[in-house]
Amino acid sequence: MKVSKSIYLFFIPGAILYAIFFLYPALSAFYYSVTNWDGISPSYAFVGFENYVRAFTGDSIFMKAIGNNLKFLLFVVVFQTIVALVFAMILRKNSKINVFWRALFFFPTILSSVSVAFVWSFIYDPNLGLLNAGLEAVGLGQLQQGWLGDESAAIFALAFTQVWFHAGQMLIIFVAGLHAIPNDLYEVANIEGATRWQTFRKVTWPLLAPSATIVIAYTTIQSFKAFDLVFAMTRGGPNYSTEIIATYIYEVGFRSYSFGYASAISVIFMAIIALITFLQFKALRSGRVNY
Amino acid sequence: MKSRLRKYIGSFGLISMLTVAGCAGSGSSGGETASSGDTTTGEDVTQISFIHWRGEDVDAFEKIISDFESANQSVQVEMNTYPSEQYQSNAQQMLRSGSVGDVFAVFPGSQFEIMKKAGLMADLTEEAFVSNFEETPIEVGQVDGKQYALPYQMVFNMPVYNKDLIEAAGFDEIPQSWEGFLAMAKALDEKGIAPIAIPAADIGVGQFMNSMVMNNSEDGIFEKLGAGEASLTDEWWVKTLTQIKELLDLGYFQDNPLGTQQDAAMALVARGEAAMLATGSYHMSSLKELNPELSLDLLAPITVSEDQKRYDGIHTATFMLAVNENSEKKEAAKAFIDYLSQPEVASYYANETGQHLTVKDVTYEDESLQNTAYWLSEKETRFQPRYMITNAQVEKAVLSSIENVLGGASPEEAAAEAQKIVEENLQ
Amino acid sequence: MVKKGALLLYGFLIIIPMLMVILTSMKTLQQTFDNPLGIPASGLQFSNYIDIFIEQTMVGYFANSVIVTLCSVFFALLFASMIAFGISRIHGWVGGVLFAVFSLGMIVPAQVIMVPLYSLVLQLELTDSLFGLIIVNVAVTMPIAIFILTGFMKTLPKELFEASMIDGAGNWKIFTKMVVPMSLPSMSATAIFLFVINWNDLLYPLLFITDNAYKTLPLALLDFQGQYATNYPMLFTGVIISSLPMVLVYIFLQRYFVAGMMAGAVKG
Prior knowledge:
Chain B: InterPro entries: Bact_solute-bd_prot1 (IPR050490), SBP (IPR006059). With 427 residues, chain B is of the alpha/beta class.
């Protein structure tokens, strides 16, 4: 049965707001990316693709930021997905105690990123912090680090905070996905004498693919946009070791007032996010077909 | 079809109008409950907005503003404070409209440059109150002989030290050479005291670099760097990095400098576990609050031999006051700056906040201000070199090379990496 | 046993920082430095809380945050559910394209739209107004709401709609009488999502609000950072006060929330 054309009226109020306050500014980024606007002055000139050329050939910090961002992304996607999946499987049943655990694990998600940044900066503080004191207390003093002050550890310390912050959210999505798997499949697996790992490989994981897609895509987007946390905790330092693309855009656009160049980086950034999300969807889709 | 269409629009319109009215209505009432009390604008009252980044000065400014309002019934001041990071990035955006920041504070260096370029600062050259300020320190707010901003605070960004600890280590006089400085640090270290506490996680690097580079480089070196006529791989910067590395390798900084934030570093000094705090004079009053027993003064490490020494320390004229060129209330804005430049008002501010000022005839009652006032008159100080870097990315590269060294890199490597970034940003 | 151990371990990982925040908020800065983790001999005190309420106009910031959050969530939910319904009813590539256009909003970093958006809001004279903040919030949070709700609405049984259409019901009637009631679980889930985002949003208030009368809580919290530098006791007191409403909302809506999240994610 044909849906009446009046369905398009449902788009009007939202689309107007979206177009004016989101699409227009977002498209302006494309426009400014071929200018040398500083973000403030009334006048600017067109420079063609100069900004893009500079981003790819003459900007070692941008390349470093992409690398840092990929490290961060990889750590968060792997650990957050594993943590969320493992606990979702443990807490699958809707018992009272499980609902409590899920609520507890979800709790960090409702805090603001500024709050989380304050809290974890304090935990990582090498002189006052909980972490080094805790390691000392349990006899693991040799693992003490400067954490956020250590060039090689800082990005992972931030990634760990990100996992702490958002894993609970992903856990809930996985629990929902697990509930959608019919119980009789497990019974069959049980009768056939499948090991736990086989059951997971052959039943749980394939049927969990839709939830996994959402979790991984959303985690990816969040990792790229983790600006607040990184900015509030390290501002990209020490020595650029935690500079990610989002903080670098801010640096370039709002600290050195190269808004045109910042826009060009933003456009590349959007392309990177779109590409990675697309590849993930494809990989997970094809994974699903095989089963 | 038409009537149905009208119905859709009608019902949607009704709902949204109701809710919008609800939101807008409660919005303004929310505004009233939240207002700090003085927003009722009478007939002949001009309300000006004053924006700055010094949250720690809010109490002092509130008192000054209320006195100012009693003295000038026709002007009211609304003050807004932002964290300095946000202020550096957002202030120029907010000022563009002219509705905010009739009076505003501006950082010397890259922010002043961009504000000048964007024409945001009104020319104050002809104003009578300019003569209330000391002449030399306010040069930093001038371009081509015109005064666009008036620096208000006078800061010595060089290490603050605990006099008792240094004396106990056997140094009645502060050493005037690099060998002497190292000997002093060694003596402190042997007594189990960290010679230098540097909060390199936040402000430490940007502060400490000034005293370390002041005698190693000629004047105007960072202008040359910006013009491509000098390089970070040259002797002046490599030597500076090498000396920082020397301090690190000898264990003269506290543990984990790159992970230490300013409050933690201050705590070390306040508790007598470290002798020097590598920040600046603005922390003296906070240190005294943490430990009133402390006896404090300022020193800069002299990085050359005594006969090559040209400067004793670093000064910065900071917190520059400016009037928004786009403002429609420039006269009221200027009246406020005029008020701030009165000696009694400035003295109140100086003593309340523990700052030296660029205003003439200020009376310092605060003990640590008095004790260090000799730096204003008797010592040869260099204007903070870091503020001569007008490109924010270049500044970041310079500071990062120090972080790199503190992280264990060799000075030559760190300098070369940073120089590469500098060159990328100068094209 | 291993399971229990893992649960306890992760539970501690969440509870300990929380306890630390609460504990620190009841100490002085000096006590924190002397012993960051212990309880001072002189006992804990609530003076930080009193200071914050007396010195800061907390009540006003609270009111602003509540107004902005409630209105933003309401409108974003209303518009997004209408659009999600539209997308779920339009078949073929048109629906797909519309879905893509609206989802695009999720991947664009906020730093990209900051300057153009600021100029726009300025021209429309919507700075220093809660209304301006609400409009922008609605526009930028709609994409995520549309993303979640579309997934859910696609799972609603089409046969029901077909039947009502034969009975002569228009789209509006189907939407209000059938889709909205059936979507309540996923809408409450989306609502919490939006609550969290709007309540904690810092960037837009930072850009658009300078007048103290219109500041929201996160912006006030940032002021603390300026005012108290790294005075953790004060900062943590601010963290607790500004998080409290979200914690309450969460406790009350938790049931719907979990149910809704599940409903949305099942079919993905």
